[in-house]
């Protein structure tokens, strides 16, 4: 059978999109894949994430497992502390939230970027996004926010739990009540490390739903800092936090100072480091549960389709692999996607 041409657009250059592109590009199909990313450059921010279960085997199949190992955060376990910094419970790798394959999100995304850029049939476009989609009986017409237009056989929304592309693929009725805020805000950033810092995920819960955490980096000059605000009830929002997030990073940092300045443990150190952090960002913990992931020639993938809490990276890797198998087999056998 001669190769069939498949022109694909993927919105989102995080984890799910490049992983899906990597596998699809290696099928018998003659693929031309474009990955469009809203950020002006590859994102360097992100917390420590783990790879577990079947996702490990998929990473091995991508021949990236040694790259993951070499970029391990060096975290050796999880320790729970009191306000004085005294450990009252500690768990080693495998017995805690720390997994065998622990890596910074930016490092994993970087591995996928390197792997896909070298394939020849994948291109990245930064600083742009999908503005509108128009499906026909044979393709999808796409207009980008930058003004350009193009036509694709398949469009994939892999731009995160707050995906803008998702609402262009699925209608309002399908999306109703599918985004569920879990009542928690978490700020992530890097701060300078100290020689005395242990190779542990240090976890301190303060009063009023506040949480402070420190995690080691492979780069021994820095470490990951996390500030969590957990509401009393699932779905409840904090109007002060919401307002600060809407205004931007500096307002959010000022808000964090007011919330955490008397929290105890390493609050002062973390807040001082936050003031100088260039990789600061804050997100809402959420779950996304869609009744379906597809609409004719369009697919929703990763956190845009099934955002979870704690296993999102592994699930994104696994589903990207299985969806690749479905679409490549379907197109090879039928020559169409609908």
Describe the structure.
The relative contact order is 0.19. This protein has 338 residues and is α/β, with parallel strands linked by helices. It folds into 2 domains: 5-70 and 104-178 and 289-334, 3-Layer(bba) Sandwich (FAD/NAD(P)-binding domain); 180-286, D-Amino Acid Oxidase, Chain A, domain 2 (2-Layer Sandwich). Strands 5-4-13-14-15-12-16 form a 7-stranded mixed beta sheet. Helix 8 runs antiparallel to helix 9. The mean pLDDT is 89. The chain is built from 11 helices and 18 strands.
Strand pairing plus helix content: what structural class? Answer: alpha/beta
Compute the number of structural domains: 2
Overall pLDDT metric: 89
At CATH level 2, the architecture of the largest domain is 3-Layer(bba) Sandwich
- The topology string of helices and strands comes to EHEEHHEEEHEEEEEHHEEEEHHHEEEHH
Ends distance = 20 Å
Protein name: FAD-binding domain-containing protein
GO molecular function, one term: FAD binding
Organism: Adineta steineri
Pfam families: FAD_binding_3
């Amino acid at each position: 059978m001669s190769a069939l041409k498949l022109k694909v657009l993927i919105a989102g250059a995080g984890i799910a999109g490049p992983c899906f592109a990597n596998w699809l590009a290696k099928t018998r199909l003659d693929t031309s894949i474009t990955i469009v990313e809203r950020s002006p450059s590859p994102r360097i921010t992100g917390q420590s994430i783990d790879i577990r279960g079947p996702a490990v085997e998929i990473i091995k199949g991508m021949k990236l497992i040694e790259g993951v190992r070499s970029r391990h955060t060096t975290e050796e376990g999880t320790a729970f502390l009191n306000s004085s910094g005294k450990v009252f419970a500690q768990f080693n790798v495998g017995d805690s939230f720390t997994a065998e394959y622990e890596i910074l999100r930016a490092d994993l995304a970087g591995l996928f970027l390197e792997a896909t850029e070298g394939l020849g049939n994948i291109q990245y476009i930064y600083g742009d996004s999908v503005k509108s989609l128009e499906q026909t009986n044979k393709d999808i017409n796409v207009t980008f926010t930058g003004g350009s237009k193009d036509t694709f056989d398949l469009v994939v929304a892999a731009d995160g739990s707050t995906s803008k592309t998702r609402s262009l693929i699925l209608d309002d009725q399908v999306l109703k009540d599918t985004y569920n805020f879990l009542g928690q805000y978490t700020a992530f950033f890097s701060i300078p490390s100290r020689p005395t810092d242990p190779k542990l995920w240090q976890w301190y819960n303060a009063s009023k739903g506040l949480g402070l955490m420190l995690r080691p980096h492979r780069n021994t000059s820095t470490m990951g800092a996390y500030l969590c605000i957990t509401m009393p009830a699932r779905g409840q929002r904090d109007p002060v936090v919401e307002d600060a997030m809407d205004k931007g990073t500096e307002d959010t940092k000022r808000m964090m100072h007011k919330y955490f300045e008397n929290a105890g443990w390493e609050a002062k150190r973390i807040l001082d480091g936050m003031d100088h952090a260039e990789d600061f960002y804050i997100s809402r913990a959420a779950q996304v549960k869609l009744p379906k992931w597809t609409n004719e020639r369009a697919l929703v993938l990763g956190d845009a389709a099934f955002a979870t809490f704690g296993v999102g990276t592994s699930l994104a890797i696994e589903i990207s692999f299985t969806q690749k198998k479905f679409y490549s087999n379907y197109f090879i056998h039928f020559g169409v996607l609908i």
